[in-house]
């Protein structure tokens, strides 16, 4: 590599002495030909952006890109338990992690082990259920198109929705999550809550507020889309990112209507930095969009003050439950974006958050569940408990 360059997987690797943590930067060959016509008629292409900045991003860019990558890695920490053939050092590390995990669990105890305690705190209040999708109702898988929920989970969510006001709040597009869940009994909020639709007349007798709309079956619904004016810009950026990602082995990009996910899960870790910088570079031309990170994804979303917490608040109001202090919302989620919802519940001083995680995470949730199979168990417990109560009242 005498020239300081080499070709690999459709990339040109450029040597960059200005980068402390990565010696080489991947520059997709497609950068030179890529262009997209934007909503205002102008054409943007990475050739119109200075190449120098692709190879050597600014200090601030590097700092934020590094920050996201670190956060992404932390969201997918290494396994907790030792394998039988681990070395003595590995075992000692694992023992230490186990101790730390147990300490963390004492601060965020299992919602299953503490089911009765949760029911006790909610006594005299009406429980409402809010659920995240990926990693909560469906297991995390490599291909985002294959994140199916099990039939048992579907039955449990349906039963829950027939007994409690229920909504799913997800980073996915609302349509995509509906395809996965296929239940008409609940409310759906897609694009991290920027696309909310639910029955105008809630099945629990509550009248929802919002813009009236009709679903495919002609049912009256309410639609709330606080980021609707970003539709075109998101489409434009999606096209640019499609070009950037198409030559990165393993990278995937997902259009979530008002947000975009760039998937790193199947990208070799040594290529993460270069990909993240390419994403940041595209985004530099769009100051009204921002970048956040999730479980091995970077997400692009409108820079508006809206998140899953605000969506939860909106839904509580739409369901006629917002101002009532006899409501006990339970929010179950696994991701960083769910923290906004956990925070809202902490602020409301009623209701509680449950984090789905097998590993230590900094969280505002009070309780934890290890994985979607435990979420299923928890939902089934709720159904059983509620049915028993209703039978007693009859
Ligand atoms: O709010 P959520 O329902 O949790 O959605 C957040 C993102 O979830 C999906 O990505 C995650 O799950 C994928 C499938 O298991 C996995 O491959 C990926 O690594 C995870 O980050 C979804 O694909 C994204 O669009 C959502 O934003």
From TrEMBL:
Its cofactor is a divalent metal cation. Pfam families: Trehalose_PPase (PF02358). It is an enzyme of class 3 (hydrolase). Its EC number is 3.1.3.12. Keywords: Hydrolase. One of its GO terms (molecular function) is trehalose-phosphatase activity. Pathway: Glycan biosynthesis; trehalose biosynthesis. Removes the phosphate from trehalose 6-phosphate to produce free trehalose. Belongs to the trehalose phosphatase family. This is Trehalose 6-phosphate phosphatase. It comes from Ceratopteris richardii (Triangle waterfern).
């Amino acid at each position: 590599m005498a020239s300081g360059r080499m070709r690999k997987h459709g990339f040109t690797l450029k040597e960059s002495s200005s980068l402390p943590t990565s010696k080489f930067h991947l520059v997709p060959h497609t950068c030179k030909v890529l262009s997209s016509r934007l909503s205002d008629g102008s054409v943007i292409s990475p050739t119109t952006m200075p190449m120098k900045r692709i190879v050597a991003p600014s200090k601030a860019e590097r700092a934020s890109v590094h920050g996201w990558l670190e956060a992404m890695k932390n969201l997918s920490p290494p396994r907790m338990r030792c394998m039988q053939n681990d070395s003595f050092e590995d075992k000692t590390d694992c023992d230490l992690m186990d101790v730390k995990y147990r300490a963390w669990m004492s601060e965020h105890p299992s919602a299953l082990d503490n089911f009765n305690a949760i029911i006790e705190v909610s006594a005299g209040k009406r429980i409402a259920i809010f659920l995240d999708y990926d990693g909560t109702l469906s297991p995390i898988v490599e291909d985002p198109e294959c994140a199916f929920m099990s039939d048992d989970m579907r039955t449990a969510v349906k039963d829950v929705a027939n007994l409690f006001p229920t909504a799913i709040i997800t980073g996915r597009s609302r349509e995509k999550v509906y395809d996965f869940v296929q239940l008409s009994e609940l409310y759906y909020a897609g694009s991290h809550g920027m696309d909310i639709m639910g029955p105008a007349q809630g099945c629990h007798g509550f009248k929802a507020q919002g813009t009236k709309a009709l679903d495919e079956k002609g049912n009256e619904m309410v639609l709330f889309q606080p980021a609707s004016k970003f539709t075109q810009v998101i489409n434009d950026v999606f096209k640019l990112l499609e070009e950037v990602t198409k030559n990165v082995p393993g990278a995937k990009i997902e259009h979530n209507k008002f947000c975009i996910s760039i998937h790193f899960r199947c990208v070799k870790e040594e290529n993460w930095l270069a990909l993240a910088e390419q994403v940041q570079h595209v985004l530099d031309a769009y100051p009204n969009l921002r970048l956040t990170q999730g479980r091995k994804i970077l997400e692009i979303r409108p820079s508006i003050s809206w998140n899953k917490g605000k969506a939860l608040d909106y839904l509580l109001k739409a369901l006629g439950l917002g101002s009532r202090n006899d409501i006990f919302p339970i929010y179950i989620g696994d991701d960083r974006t769910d923290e906004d919802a956990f925070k809202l519940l902490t602020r409301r001083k009623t209701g509680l958050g449950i984090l789905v995680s097998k590993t230590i995470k900094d969280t505002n949730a009070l309780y934890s569940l290890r994985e979607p199979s435990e979420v299923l168990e928890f939902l089934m417990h709720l159904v059983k408990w509620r049915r028993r109560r209703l039978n007693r009242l009859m």
